[in-house]
């Protein structure tokens, strides 16, 4: 069967970013009037810069900074962008490129090109920022800049406020913009959802392609290669949303396997379970999908047991998700469904409520149930207001504790892993040893783990699963045996 695709990369209307700017403008104006502050000042963001590899002239492929991408959709490095809160005018500032750029890197585009391409009111050069903003300023005193400064609660790093020469000629506000702009990114517009859907469609198709080609004897990185090729070849996706995790055998219990020190380089063996967490990014917006299945295409009874425990948790959460539901409750629901299954199958023993009190769920699922998804894989806004992080195992790893709301895109990714570093202490602890059927748990030594991850859009009354991969064991085994996907239900 020749490799091909039913998909082509869709054109993305630049209105997407124009609407994002309008959303911010409305939010910030609303906030300023609520706090009885004047409706003027400039939102000023600095776009990303190209990065060299250490001291060399090797330049990594540039990917725009996410907040800047959200508001302006600019793919080139070195830009600044401003929004005039008084007038709503949007202004892009392009770097003034040297003449030799035309020799090495191609045509130097005129300002009119950027004005049209990015649908802004006007475009200037970055060395004109001070003059342009002073001329635009209608009020008295120094012009006011709203700069982006705030904590990313996933990375614990701070966004970098715009810097430029002569910034001393301005008043700056470092606290207002970040929470407002971040909150804008938490719910997605229809145009954003369409892009995330395409990233999901092409990534789902690529996962199926990997599923069809996986064989014992291959290297893990060959699965990564098939995925990346498919999403780039047929989806135009130059970037993945994150480093591909292609974990097989015992590696599937390493949550973020695939990094430079563990570069997806194990040889697949018959009888292995594969855990493949891969997602492509399209026009800045990402996807985040995990499939778990046996390398040889046939689930053993123990593999089925763990897989179905996780699938039941995944499906239970998706059935329960709707606006107003607490993400903490969803995490606990997933834990409970997994513990119920492990008890039913004789791996655990005792009362599941008591197990929950002792936080046994976090022994098998030490990560959070999922996270907001958008321009960043871990999209910001998880802890913007309301409750602080919970300190308990498992729950402390939650990337949000919010109630879900319509328009959020969030991943649902329960997992069940046999991680010695967690199991051994729990099986030895006086509080929890009684819950384990030690002999049954022993069967899972070196098993690794299962994760099932889908991207879900919260709708008015429920949710929609944007990920379209085989999930039932019967579907996976059929597709791995050569059946088309989606399965032809009629035949
Ligand atoms: Mn994820």
Notes on the protein architecture:
There is one protein chain. By secondary structure, the protein is an alpha+beta fold. It has 2 domains: 173 residues, Creatinase/prolidase N-terminal domain (Creatine Amidinohydrolase, Chain A, domain 1); 292 residues, Creatine Amidinohydrolase, CATH 3.90.230.10. It is built from 15 helices and 18 strands. The strands form 6 sheets. The protein has a 6-stranded mixed beta sheet, with helices on both faces. It has a 3-stranded antiparallel beta sheet with strand order 10-11-13, covered by helices on one side. Strands 14-17-18 form a 3-stranded antiparallel beta sheet, covered by helices on one side. β2 and β3 form a beta hairpin. α1 crosses α2. It is globular. The two termini are 20 Å apart. The relative contact order is 0.11. The model has no long low-confidence stretch (mean pLDDT 96). Manganese (II) ion binds next to loops. Manganese (II) ion (MN) binds next to loops. It catalyses: Xaa-L-Pro dipeptide + H2O = an L-alpha-amino acid + L-proline. It holds the Pfam family AMP_N. Keywords: Dipeptidase, Hydrolase, Manganese, Metal-binding, Metalloprotease, Protease. GO terms for molecular function: manganese ion binding; metalloaminopeptidase activity; proline dipeptidase activity. It comes from Rosa chinensis.
């Amino acid at each position: 069967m020749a490799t091909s695709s039913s998909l082509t990369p869709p054109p993305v209307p630049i209105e997407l970013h124009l609407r994002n700017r309008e959303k911010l403008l409305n939010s910030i104006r609303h906030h300023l009037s609520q706090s009885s502050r004047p409706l003027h000042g400039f939102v000023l963001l600095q776009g990303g810069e190209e990065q060299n590899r250490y001291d060399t002239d090797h330049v990594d492929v540039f990917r725009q900074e996410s907040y800047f991408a959200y508001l302006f959709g600019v793919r080139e490095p070195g830009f600044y962008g401003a929004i005039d809160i008084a007038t709503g005018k949007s202004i892009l500032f392009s770097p003034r490129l040297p003449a030799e750029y035309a020799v090495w890197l191609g045509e130097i585009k005129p300002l009119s090109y950027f004005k049209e391409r990015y649908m802004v009111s006007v475009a200037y050069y970055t060395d004109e920022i001070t003059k342009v903003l002073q001329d635009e300023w209608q009020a008295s005193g120094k012009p006011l800049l709203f700069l982006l400064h705030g904590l990313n609660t996933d990375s614990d790093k701070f966004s970098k406020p715009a810097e430029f020469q002569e910034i001393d000629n301005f008043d700056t506000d470092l606290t207002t913009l970040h929470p407002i702009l971040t909150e804008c990114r938490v719910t997605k517009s229809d145009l954003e959802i369409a892009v995330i859907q395409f990233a999901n469609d092409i990534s789902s198709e690529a996962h199926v392609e990997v599923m069809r080609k996986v064989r014992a004897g291959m290297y893990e990185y060959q699965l990564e290669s098939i995925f990346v090729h498919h999403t780039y070849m047929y989806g135009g996706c130059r970037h993945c949303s994150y480093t591909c995790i292609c974990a097989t055998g015992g590696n599937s219990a390493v949550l973020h396997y695939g990094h430079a020190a563990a570069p997806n380089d194990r040889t697949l063996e018959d009888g292995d379970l594969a855990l493949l967490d891969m997602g492509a990014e399209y026009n800045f917006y990402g996807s985040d999908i995990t499939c778990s299945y046996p390398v040889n295409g046939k689930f053993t009874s123990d593999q089925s047991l763990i897989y179905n425990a996780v699938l039941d948790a995944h499906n239970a959460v998706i059935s329960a998700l709707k606006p107003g539901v607490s993400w903490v409750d969803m995490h606990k629901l997933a834990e409970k469904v997994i513990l119920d299954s492990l008890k039913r199958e004789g791996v655990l023993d005792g009362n599941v409520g008591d197990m929950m009190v002792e936080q046994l769920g976090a022994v098998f699922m030490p990560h959070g149930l999922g996270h907001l998804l958008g321009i960043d894989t871990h999209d910001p806004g998880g802890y913007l207001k309301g409750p602080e992080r919970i300190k308990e195992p498992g729950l402390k790893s939650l990337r949000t504790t919010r109630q879900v709301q319509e328009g959020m895109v969030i991943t649902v990714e329960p997992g069940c892993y046999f991680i010695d570093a967690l199991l051994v202490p729990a099986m030895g602890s006086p509080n929890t040893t009684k819950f384990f059927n030690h002999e049954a748990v022993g069967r899972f030594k070196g098993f690794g783990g299962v994760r099932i991850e889908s991207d879900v859009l919260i709708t008015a009354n429920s949710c929609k699963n944007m990920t379209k991969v085989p999930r039932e064991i019967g579907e996976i085994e059929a597709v791995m045996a050569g059946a088309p996907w989606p399965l032809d239900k009629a035949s």
